Amino acid sequence: MTDIVLATLNAKYQHASLGLRYLLANMGELRPQTRLMEFVWDQRSTEIAERLLTERPRIIGLGVYIWNARETLQLVQVLKAVAPEVIIVLGGPEVSYEQEEQAVVTAADYVIAGQGDLAFAALCQQLLHGERPAQKIIHVTPPPLEQINLPYDEYTDTDIAQRLVYVEASRGCPFKCEFCLSALDKTAWPFELERFLAALARLHARGVRHFKFVDRTFNLNVKASRRILQFFLDRLSDDLFLHFEVIPDHLPEGLKELLVRFPPGTLQLEVGVQSFNPAVQQRISRKQDNAATEANLRWLRAHSHAHLHADLIIGLPGEDLASFATGFNRLWALRPHEIQVGTLKRLRGAPIARHTDEFAMRYDPQPPYTLLANRDLDFSTMQSLTRFARYWDLVANSGRFGHALPLLLGDDAFGRFLQFADWLYAATGQTHKIALPRLFQLLHQALVEVFAVPEQDSLTALARDCAAFGAKGCPEFLHGHLQQVQQAARRNAPVRQARHLQN
């Protein structure tokens, strides 16, 4: 019998909810009566409700996040319309703050505000015994980590075969960057390392080779980071892949000596730069040594095989267009493999809200609460920068245009790509669903007509980009140049490699 269903709406099927698995692992004697069900946010709310109610649960717990808040509201409204007797309990960061403003909170029965690893099971015990707490909002303090059962055995064989496996060696963050909910944490708390490594060993033995760490500050505790890196070095294989989020200005020699030992394709480091402007950093309580950040990124690019994914945020209070452009070009000069350009979002509860009036911060009232305009960036400029970010993903971060991109960016990466983005939107009216052959054609047109790149140089660069990924998706106008590039590659290749190219 399923008395309790734990559910959430993920952004993609491959995302497996770590939070729900923590709840499931800590249900205690209620574990046999509890089932975990996951959906994708774009499924119909009526279909999700039907599947949930097929279990005939008495309690449904829903994880609410910034990316699924609207869809979760629709689901709760459907559930309450057709099965009002089912008790709906909400949890997650989206409903842990500012509950009085949220329709989804009004529609539900209870909300657990904070880390509900143990609190959810305790609430279910009360409810199943007919005890209804008087308070709708149940505020909980973070439980001691040693009291929490780890969730990793709750990953099923199907999860391991088809989905991303998320893990965390610690919770919280000691830093106070105001755009992030972790600014509310007092510090970072590590899980007991031997217990965590034993759980990783079980996952590895079951076939997990892709580990995504969700720690905010993986390299904060160097001793623990070294133990974890050594754990994976002892288990290196061609299919191993690790993702860590790291502090950009903290890379001691003890970590460097291990990072250099990971082969290509094994390690991805997410480096949160966010802004290079010292005044902006101070304003949002972000402590960052910019010189050390640059030195560390240069070292990682030169001496490690790690794939570097660096983040910048558009719209931080006091960061005008010129400042952002300077920071972008400064980061581009360090050549991370990806620059993720994100627009500021006002997370519920995040301290960034204190700047709203002074800097005229105007956010979309609907999730994910993206900045629409502020004192220094008007709405039109923000729209242009949003398209910049989308097209940067499409062209630069895709890795498809390694030869054409230098021609496009020249010596002013931000200025020229913003010009390209404005031109591309004017030419297409689209930011999505641009087919690859058409993108090749548009990029060639922009290089020649907008940036005065010699046509032969553009054609050769784009043909080389086609050749790097195979002819599939290569537009017809490049076929002749592609053959020339491939012939030149055969002529210049060593004899053994030339035979390989012929096969």
What about the largest sheet? 6 strands, parallel
- Number of discrete helical segments: 19
Helix content: 40-55%
How much of the sequence lies in strands comes to 15-25%
Structural class: alpha/beta
Overall mean confidence score, pLDDT: 94
CA radius of gyration is 25 Å
> What CATH first level of the largest domain would be assigned?
Alpha Beta
Spatial ordering of strands, largest sheet: 2-1-3-4-5-6
Q: How far apart are the termini?
A: 59 Å
- Global shape: globular
Low-confidence stretches: 495-503
Q: What name goes with the CATH superfamily of the largest domain?
A: tm_1862 like domain
- Give me the CATH architecture of the largest domain, please: Alpha-Beta Horseshoe
Features:
503 residues, alpha/beta, Rossmann fold, pyruvate-formate lyase- activating enzyme, 3 domains, 6-stranded parallel beta sheet, 16 strands, disordered C terminus
How is this structure best described in words?
With 503 residues, the chain is α/β, with parallel strands linked by helices. It folds into three domains: 4-144, Rossmann fold (3-Layer(aba) Sandwich), CATH 3.40.50.280; 164-377, tm_1862 like domain (pyruvate-formate lyase- activating enzyme); 399-503, no CATH class. It contains 19 helices and 16 strands. The protein has helices spanning 18-25, 45-54, 69-82, 103-107, 119-128, 157-162, 193-205, 222-233, 253-259, 278-283, 290-303, 321-332, 379-397, 404-409, 413-428, 436-450, 455-468, 479-492, 495-502, and strands spanning 4-10, 34-40, 59-63, 87-91, 110-113, 137-139, 165-167, 170-172, 188-190, 210-213, 241-246, 267-274, 307-314, 338-343, 362-363, 371-373. It has a six-stranded parallel sheet with strand order 2-1-3-4-5-6, sandwiched between helices. The protein has a six-stranded parallel sheet with strand order 7-10-11-12-13-14. The protein has a two-stranded antiparallel sheet with strand order 8-9. Helix 2 crosses helix 3, helix 8 runs parallel beside helix 9 and helix 18 runs antiparallel to helix 19. The longest helix has 19 residues, at 379-397. Residues 495-503 have low confidence and may be disordered.
